[in-house]
Amino acid sequence: MTDLWQNAMDHAVALAKKAGSLVRDAVQNDMKVMLKSSSVDLVTKTDQMVEQLIIDSVKEKFPTHSFIGEESVAAGEPCVLTDNPTWIVDPVDGTTNFVHGYPFVAVSIGFAVNRKLEFGVVYSCIEDKMYTARKGKGAFCNGLLLNVSDQKEISQSIIATEFGSNRDTEVVDKIFSSMRKILCLPIHGIRGVGTAATNMCLVASGCVEAYYEIGIHCWDIAAGAIIVTEAGGVLMDVDGGPLDLMSRRVVAANNKIIAESIVKEIDAFTPLRDDAPPETKD
Amino acid sequence: MTDLWQNAMDHAVALAKKAGSLVRDAVQNDMKVMLKSSSVDLVTKTDQMVEQLIIDSVKEKFPTHSFIGEESVAAGEPCVLTDNPTWIVDPVDGTTNFVHGYPFVAVSIGFAVNRKLEFGVVYSCIEDKMYTARKGKGAFCNGLLLNVSDQKEISQSIIATEFGSNRDTEVVDKIFSSMRKILCLPIHGIRGVGTAATNMCLVASGCVEAYYEIGIHCWDIAAGAIIVTEAGGVLMDVDGTSLYIPDST
């Protein structure tokens, strides 16, 4: 039985590889850094150029498909997930790392049909690690099968999270209070590589038991989400309900026990949704 | 002019490589985890075995040298730096990472004479990155010269730090308040790979502008310290005074 979306997935992997090699080359060179919503929300010409490359290639090969991309949305394109086959792309996840040469930068390509993820590709290009997952067929890193950690004790866990780029006092208050409560359960430690997509792949790889964050976007987590579930993990919202891709909130964990232990400690807040009407956005 | 300590440094690199490959193999296997000062301060047989390997090898080749090692000190050996040539070793920096398979684990070997660091070796063994520095001769990673970042604006910086393994309320209060103040200067971001030695190498590599921590030990930072300075960086105490490597407390 042929896989309807195998072509698309193969194309995504090839695109991620190509985009990743452009990003890797660009890391070596000086770059002009621009600001988006604040002085700590960075973007470069590489982000924009790589996204354009991906859009053009997808439009050419799959002209009927839809596209949600970080830089396109920043430029005013709508961010709405329909039933139509949709590519959900972050061309450079970890732009701050990219600007500094900190070695975690990923190309993230998720693909959904009828609002359900069919495959995900995350290429951690400086490490040359290609993470992939096809629904029902497992998750892989450079061809090796991935499995989440089998840890059930929160006290023996490492949890990944980030400080994010919002420096508003009330937001920082909640980010710090959640982190502190989780650290002091106690757990073994908190880590974060600086890219949501890669943090999710670390959950899938079993290196960390879970990752949570409020403030990320759908393009940061779409690919990572299916990689985590295909590696045996679970997803949920920070309030314990199902993951809502557009809600700007994510918990990805090895199992429900660990996920619920974290959810209990998170001081949640509700950022503006990715699919909010354009007039409500800045 | 021959370098008096070149032999010792070559031996340190070879030892780090060998120790690193043992650590890398052990990451794949199940391991028994023991606790030191608390439920989050971990140690394994690999830490102890690798340190013994290093001690035995150093004692055989350099019988007059002194040794300060994490596991030896934990077992009751004194931790005092004298003028004597002294190896300052953390056999597995990042034991928590090691236990979890989180890919940052380093063998750290520092060497001091007359209480001054002469060379440092940090082998980030899962990444296969060998960081070295010889006083006056620069710092390298896998043969490539390292340079710290040239960034002068704190607002454009990434700072590395860690939460550490002390969960006492007053300590956690200060760790969080410091982190928050620094994050909100604002800076670009805070990162941490989970090993002090590797965090210091990231400073030397220019990936992050600085690393700070309270709660590490001399064996975590001795090698990294000279790698940072040889890459053009600076060291200081958290109160702004000179870094003193290390003392008897």
From TrEMBL, chain A:
Gene3D superfamilies: 3.40.190.80, Fructose-1,6-Bisphosphatase, subunit A, domain 1. The keyword Magnesium applies. Mg(2+) 1 binds at residue 70. Its cofactor is Mg(2+). It is found in: Cytoplasm. SUPFAM superfamilies: Carbohydrate phosphatase (SSF56655). GO terms for molecular function: fructose-1-phosphatase activity; glucose-1-phosphatase activity; glucose-6-phosphatase activity; glycerol-2-phosphatase activity; inositol monophosphate 1-phosphatase activity; inositol monophosphate 3-phosphatase activity; inositol monophosphate 4-phosphatase activity; metal ion binding. It comes from the Eukaryota. It holds the Pfam family Inositol_P. GO terms for biological process: inositol biosynthetic process; phosphatidylinositol phosphate biosynthetic process; signal transduction. CDD domains: IMPase (cd01639). Keywords: Cytoplasm, Hydrolase, Lithium, Magnesium, Metal-binding. Pathway: Polyol metabolism; myo-inositol biosynthesis; myo-inositol from D-glucose 6-phosphate: step 2/2. It catalyses: alpha-D-glucose 1-phosphate + H2O = D-glucose + phosphate; 1D-myo-inositol 4-phosphate + H2O = myo-inositol + phosphate; 1D-myo-inositol 6-phosphate + H2O = myo-inositol + phosphate; alpha-D-galactose 1-phosphate + H2O = D-galactose + phosphate. GO terms for cellular component: cytoplasm. Its EC number is 3.1.3.25. Mg(2+) 2 binds at residues 90, 93, 220. It is an enzyme of class 3 (hydrolase). Homodimer. Belongs to the inositol monophosphatase superfamily. This is Inositol-1-monophosphatase. It comes from Hucho hucho (huchen).
Automatic annotation (TrEMBL), chain B:
Its main location: cytoplasm. Homodimer. Its EC number is 3.1.3.25. One of its GO terms (biological process) is inositol biosynthetic process. Mg(2+) 2 binds at residues 90, 93, 220. InterPro entries: IMPase (IPR033942), Inositol_monoP_metal-BS (IPR020583), Inositol_monoPase_Li-sen (IPR020552), Inositol_monophosphatase-like (IPR000760), Inositol_monophosphatase_CS (IPR020550). One of its GO terms (molecular function) is fructose-1-phosphatase activity. Belongs to the inositol monophosphatase superfamily. Pathway: Polyol metabolism; myo-inositol biosynthesis; myo-inositol from D-glucose 6-phosphate: step 2/2. The keyword Cytoplasm applies. Gene3D superfamilies: 3.40.190.80, Fructose-1,6-Bisphosphatase, subunit A, domain 1. This is Inositol-1-monophosphatase. The lineage of its organism: Eukaryota, Metazoa, Chordata, Craniata, Vertebrata.
